[in-house]
Design goal:
The protein contains ten helices and eleven strands. By secondary structure, it is an alpha/beta fold. Helix 1 links the parallel strand 1 and strand 2.
């Protein structure tokens, strides 16, 4: 695909979430800031709700230059490199302060890995913490046994296996129908996704376990980026910095509000998690982290070591 640099540039950006989702809104504001900062010379059209490409296709489309920008759930790239799974290791970073520290120590490694594939990191936005949505009460991990567990990355599949559940890969937009048809019984996702999908229509319980805080990353085709005039490159990266700050603030602000909204919609919201359930889930999370360390290599292991060194003793 030709990537012209003369005159006004028109770029396309694929975003997975619906237009009303806060990550999509951040993307629209990012595009607006780029347009304003370049006096209309770089125009980015945001395509929400996976209308251009679905989640597994986005990074490859950006790498090829079929589109210039894409919004990607980072841990969905875990099969390419363990570094992309780091923010989805269960119970490693469970609040925003921890998640920011983990991102600070891992960002450089993520940027290098992306550049090796011909794409550049522009910004990253965290989701609210991932928690359990279930169509039945949960008191111990034994209650999860044999349930069909919605998976969206390799780490969640492994989590499901260790819980003796049955991992089932379901795209976000297909979740409501999958629950209604009995293809899924339980899922680990954010309160934001629960609101977007109207989870109260198909599940009864929300367990605020806050297992981890994953991120979406926005990437740009490196060839397209380098062909821009220097001033436009600076403008795009500056807009990315603004988008990242706004995204983190929005995600944090939405967490409590959306949990309250789930309760108002009639869901049973459990914030005081049964100690046995939390202990058992944490033990499974520790096993997944140990497995990650065993295959991630020394360089990636040092990232976790640096992160843990910063945690309170």
């Amino acid at each position: 695909m030709a990537l012209p640099v003369c005159g006004s540039e028109r770029w396309s950006m694929s975003v997975e979430q619906p237009a009303g989702n806060f990550i999509s809104r951040v993307a629209v504001e990012f595009a607006r800031n780029v347009r304003q900062a370049t006096n209309g010379q770089l125009n980015i059209r945001v395509h929400p709700n996976s209308t251009l490409y679905r989640r597994p296709e986005v990074k490859a489309a950006v790498t090829r230059g079929d589109i210039q920008l894409g919004d990607v759930f980072m841990s969905a790239l875990g099969n390419e490199d363990p570094i992309f799974e780091l923010d989805s290791l269960p119970f490693l970073a469970t609040d925003y302060e921890q998640a920011r520290k983990l991102w600070t120590v891992s960002r450089e490694a993520v940027e290098r890995r992306l550049l090796a594939d011909g794409v550049r990191l522009v910004y990253a936005v965290p989701w609210p913490a991932q928690s359990l949505f279930s169509n039945r009460p949960l008191r111990t991990v034994e209650d999860v046994r044999d349930l069909r567990f919605r998976s969206y990355n390799p780490t969640i599949s492994r989590l499901a296996h260790l819980l003796h559940a049955r991992p089932t890969t379901i795209n976000t937009e297909e979740v409501p129908q999958a629950f209604r048809e009995g293809l899924v019984d339980i899922m680990l996702t954010s309160s934001t996704t629960g609101m977007d999908l109207r989870a109260w229509d198909f599940v009864s319980h929300f367990y605020d376990v806050r297992a981890f805080i994953p991120k979406n990353i926005v990437i740009v085709n490196e060839r397209a980026f380098q062909r821009l005039p220097e001033a436009q490159r600076r403008a795009l990266l500056h807009a990315g910095e603004r988008a990242e700050r706004a995204g983190w603030e929005l995600s944090w602000a939405l967490t409590g509000y959306q949990t309250r909204m789930l309760a108002r919609r009639g869901m049973t919201v459990v914030q005081e998690i049964d100690p046995q359930l939390r202990r058992e889930l944490t033990e499974v999370g520790q096993q997944i982290t140990e497995e990650w360390l065993a295959r991630a290599g020394e360089e990636h292991a040092q990232i976790i070591a640096a992160y843990l060194d910063e945690q309170p003793r």
